[in-house]
Design goal:
By secondary structure, this protein is of the alpha+beta class. The protein has helices at residues 3-13, 30-47, 51-58, 61-69, 74-84, and strands at residues 91-98, 101-110, 113-124, 127-133. The longest helix has 18 residues, at 30-47.
Length: 134
């Protein structure tokens, strides 16, 4: 996926409707919980309008480099994605890990429909970083 398209998709992935957020990371253990926690941190950053946290802590260096190569400033792109979202409510339904790559199946609400997206994360040292949205 093109990096700029990934930021546009972020607006849809973090779009939800009204309900109070639930910490779905608590449904997982070990590394799966660490992966789900990254999604929860993305949700919180969106609620708090904190694109700097997303760019500094949650996105992989590969995704950041691709954004930069396209001439996209990460903070500006993420802030615009947040602005395009109606509200922010993500629920991690499933996490699968294969080596240094994880996939988080995320449920969100868009308008009146429940939708799902799969986020790909890469291990960066001890941390997990989002490398693909959607």
């Amino acid at each position: 996926m093109r990096p700029l398209a990934a930021l546009c998709l972020m607006a849809f992935v973090v779009a939800g409707c009204g309900a109070a957020p639930r910490d779905s990371a608590k449904d997982f253990k070990g590394d799966e919980r660490n992966v789900a926690d990254v999604v929860e941190r993305l949700e919180k950053a969106a609620r708090d309008d904190d694109p700097a946290l997303v760019c500094k802590s949650l996105l992989s260096t590969k995704l950041l480099a691709a954004l930069q190569a396209q001439g996209t400033n990460c903070n500006t792109g993420v802030k615009e994605a947040f602005k395009d979202a109606d509200s922010f409510d993500l629920t991690v339904d499933d996490v699968s890990i294969a080596g240094a790559t994880a996939r988080a199946k995320v449920k969100y609400r868009s308008l009146s429909d429940d939708k799902t997206a799969t986020l790909t994360l890469d291990r960066a040292g001890e941390a997990w970083k989002i490398s693909s949205l959607g």
